[in-house]
Amino acid sequence: MSDNEFKVIKSNCGNDTLLYSGCKHYKFRDQKKNVVWRCIVKGCGVLVWTDKSISVIQKKNGKEHDHEGVCEENLKKQEIRNAIKRKAQEEVHVEPTKIIRMKYSRKDRSRLIWSRKFFVLPTLTIHINILRLYNFCMNWARLKNCIASKITTMAIKKLAKMIQMFLLLLLCPNSELMVRGTLIDFLERK
Length: 190
Fold this sequence. Notes:
Helix content: 40-55%
Shape: elongated
Largest sheet: 6 strands, antiparallel
Oligomer: single chain
Structural class: alpha+beta
Protein name: FLYWCH-type domain-containing protein
């Protein structure tokens, strides 16, 4: 983006943010004929004036930015994050992982990782399928009071344990659970 180009993006809170000369500016004042924008970095003090429709930059105060500009990668992440938030608010019935998969391109998805603490984004679609199967089994286990047969509930619990174990093995491949016999012992416990 050159120095004369600018665009308005949404911040994480949903407010308008002006991206101009590689730096972000928040809406500082809304005047009768123009809008005043201020740099988001505390102590920078650069002001930019635009017309009401935010189509033309009218002037800039004499100060220059005394800090680095915003990284393009961070801007892309912010745009994707905001798009996901808007989509999640509009379509409440859609799974969050499905929204994320729709917004990220295949190239971006391959760079993201599976975290040990929480599900960030799958590197492979198999992880999504495993999570769906796990959620399905856990939902059935929660509904065990509605199921008449004890055999069915025991089978569902055992399947849920197997899936939990499989997920643990995926997340912690070098853990103690890989010791021979431990997996069978874990699954046979009640």
